[in-house]
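Take a specimen:
=====
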Amino acid sequence: MIGRGTAEAELAEVLVVGGGRFGRIAAQRLGGRVLRVVEPRPTPELLALGVAVEEAEGVEAVSRALAGPRPPEWIVPCLPRHLLGLWLMAELAPLAPRLVELPVESLPSAASRLPGPDGTWFFSHANFLCPDDCPEPAATCTVTGRPRPANMFELLAAVRLPGFQTAVVRSRQLAPGVGGLRSRELVALRRRLAARRGGRWLVGTACRCHGVLQGLELGRDE
């Protein structure tokens, strides 16, 4: 881990998870707000930014950060996998969580809807490559200028599947093209799932235009 001065660390509030292209973009655009970037294999390009780097796996680093006395206010996922789902599976290990395949015919339609790893489904209002500095305007698409069909975080939160409960955490824009999850919302969701002590869940994260859903089944901690 590469350290930073105490005074600077006191101003930081963001944990960036992933040090690839998008993690480096997040670190550059958020500047002094970044506490550190989590990356198990830091590249010279990442180290050249001068930001503090924690050489660790993302889920483990998030668990440590949120369990600490001064957790970061924001978690910025910059991984090719669904960080929330992976983190919940690790945090709820006593409930023996397992991935559940989702019925495609029951999922919401979108301009782009693609399967991903770990039983995830990715959704987007765009069927084109979005600019990496999109300011996420409230009502219209930056590229087309046309009204957005609906906020993706609302669209996914409204999904109802028989036997499932739905929980979607909204990603809020912290800088152009950089979205973050509130730490307190992640902790609240973990407590919610743990309190139910079992059952099937649709868990997801989404901003206005893009999102991901994943099915989890929890056992009971006897």
User: Anything to note?
Assistant: The chain has a mean pLDDT of 92. The two ends are 38 Å apart (CA to CA).
